[in-house]
């Protein structure tokens, strides 16, 4: 509108100029005044247009830089629904450690392969894989005709031993009466000793097979034997079925006792001088919901494993019965070789936004019984081990300040969504 007015004014000035030039030179002063007025009006219009453009640019810039929202308030019900947990900043030893990997293992005396001393047909199986049993519990029943022959040999030897014993006594009586022959006495004594030894051997064989020699001597012959558990523990893989022929060279099943489970870690030569008996060990297992498990080194091997230049370090697990630990589980552990404690937060407590790392702390000044307010705090992160990350606070927090240890990403998403709505 202002530009149109200026154009019209200029046109009128031109017409008036022609008019006045034709009329008289006396109007020259009036023409100059009109020209100056036109220039002033045109300058004012340009200034107004420039001001409007600057305002539009300023508006555009403000849209590109929205106001940052650092806080969020949630009720306890909302926190429970999304799984937000709160705790203090912990002190962790993440620097003065030796990182090692390995597996869970049990001592040799806590593992057993169930074998048979005499082959036979599997008639019954009393256990299932994964079942916990006690020492001496019945596992399987085996049948073998050779058992009957062994018991018969035992009975025959016992009956013949009675005659041998009487013959020895008769030769002694004759020798005492100077009526016997020394050679006969010696032969009777030799036979007696041989028969007695044979009885003891057969009785021991019957006992190893689980048969009572006294019961056999009383005429109780059996054709089946029961194989019992040599140790208490959990039944592992069962390699036989009902009707399978049990061989003496092949285990029927295995039993594992995890009560003395420990961790075998591989420490390489460059770190070996730092590791000593008695040092604390921390490690995590995924099947334990990332719970931190503690142990302590109780033994260090004195020979390298193959060509890896690694030494096996044995760590006993404290309160192992509390966890569902299984032999062969792979673990990554941290051996505490110093005492450099540093502030640390769980990995789930740290979020990243605009190339910066943040945690969310509880704003005690704004929080009440109805809502909990959170404020964003920038941190610098360090090493990450066993689910914890070293942090350095850029803003001071109270010594007993509580932070979000799980669910921080939800709060970040919520604040960003709020910022977009305001824009």
From TrEMBL:
Gene Ontology CC terms: cell envelope; membrane
Domain of life, per lineage: Bacteria
Pfam name, any one: BSH_RND
This protein's UniProt keywords: Transport
Coiled-coil regions listed: none
GO function terms (MF aspect): transmembrane transporter activity
Keyword Transport: yes
Biological process according to GO: copper ion export; plasma membrane copper ion transport
Residues covered by the Multidrug resistance protein MdtA-like barrel-sandwich hybrid domain: 111-256
Family the entry assigns: Belongs to the membrane fusion protein (MFP) (TC 8.A.1) family.
The protein's name: Membrane fusion protein, cobalt-zinc-cadmium efflux system
The species this protein was found in: Parafilimonas terrae
């Amino acid at each position: 509108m202002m530009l149109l007015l200026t154009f019209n004014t200029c046109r009128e000035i031109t017409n008036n100029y022609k008019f006045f030039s034709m009329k008289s030179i006396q109007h020259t002063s009036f023409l100059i005044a009109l020209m100056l007025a036109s220039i002033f009006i045109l300058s004012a219009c340009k200034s107004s247009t420039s001001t409007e453009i600057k305002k539009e640019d300023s508006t555009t810039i403000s849209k590109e830089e929205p106001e940052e929202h650092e806080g969020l308030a949630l009720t306890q019900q909302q926190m429970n629904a999304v799984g937000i947990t709160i705790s203090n900043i912990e002190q962790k030893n993440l620097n003065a450690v030796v990182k090692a990997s390995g597996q869970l293992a049990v001592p040799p005396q806590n593992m057993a392969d169930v074998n048979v001393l005499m082959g036979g047909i599997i008639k019954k199986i009393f256990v299932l894989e994964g079942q916990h049993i006690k020492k001496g519990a019945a596992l399987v029943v085996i049948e073998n005709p050779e058992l009957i022959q062994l018991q018969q040999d035992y009975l025959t030897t016992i009956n013949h031993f009675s005659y041998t014993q009487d013959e020895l006594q008769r030769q002694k009586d004759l020798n005492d009466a100077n009526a016997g022959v020394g050679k006969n006495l010696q032969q009777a004594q030799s036979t007696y000793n041989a028969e007695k030894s044979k009885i003891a051997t057969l009785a021991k064989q019957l006992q190893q097979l689980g048969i009572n020699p006294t019961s056999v001597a009383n005429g109780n012959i059996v054709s089946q034997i029961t194989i019992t558990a040599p140790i208490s523990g959990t039944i592992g893989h069962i390699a036989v079925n009902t009707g399978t022929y049990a061989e003496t060279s092949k285990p029927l099943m295995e039993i594992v006792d995890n009560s003395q489970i420990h961790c075998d870690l591989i420490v390489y030569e460059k770190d070996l001088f730092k590791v000593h008996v008695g040092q604390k060990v921390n490690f995590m297992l995924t099947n334990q919901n990332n719970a931190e498990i503690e142990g302590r080194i109780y033994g260090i091997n004195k020979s390298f494993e193959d060509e890896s230049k690694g030494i096996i370090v044995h760590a006993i697990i404290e309160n192992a019965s509390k966890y569902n630990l299984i032999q062969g589980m792979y673990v990554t552990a941290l051996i505490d070789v110093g005492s450099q404690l540093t502030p640390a937060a769980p990995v789930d407590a740290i979020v990243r936004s605009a190339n910066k790392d943040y945690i969310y702390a509880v704003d005690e000044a704004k929080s009440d019984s109805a809502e909990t307010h959170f404020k964003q705090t920038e941190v610098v992160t360090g090493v990450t081990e066993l689910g914890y990350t070293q942090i350095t606070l850029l803003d001071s927090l109270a010594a007993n300040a509580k932070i979000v240890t799980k669910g921080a990403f939800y709060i970040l998403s919520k604040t960003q969504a709020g910022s977009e709505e305001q824009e």
